[in-house]
Task: structure prediction
Amino acid sequence: MIRAALLGICGLGLSAFAVAQNEPTDLETLLFGEDGAELQPTENRTYQQHDTVTLRALDKITGRSTDFDMRVGEPKVYGSLRVDLDVCFQTPPEEPPESSAFLRITSATSKQVQTMAEPRDLTEEELAESQSEDADIRFSGWMFASSPGLSALEHPVYDIWVIHCSEVDPSVLDPAFPNE
Result:
């Protein structure tokens, strides 16, 4: 399909160029090379796995957006949604910025919904209860920071998208022994 579009769009311009040069030319060879393969991007990105993602959530009713951090394996409830992070990847600083995270967003149970304004962690009891229940899956897949509309959550009240991935800053972790 891409090949046909390029042939159609560029055909007139390239054939005019070939006529001006008085040389017979094969349009497909000019566009795709001798082997006929489509052009491939030359940049290869390397991704580093991180354990924390920063998400931005928008309540479409109130217009309030909230940024919050999540760790892999520690689900959060935002409004009536439960968000689970499976993995997060970030490109290194010397490459073009890109973050991607695999998220699973389901409807939270009525017991899990306590506040609609701030995201909160689930308690051990809520986690145990939710393992046995079948959840209404709203979104399951990769979200990309550079293209939030590429694979987006379709929900009438909330939007959630990836901002960036990061490592946990050890200075913000709670010490195991606060008196030492």
Summary: The CA atoms of residues 82 and 108 lie 5 Å apart. Residues 1-24 have pLDDT under 50 and may be disordered. The two ends are 66 Å apart (CA to CA).
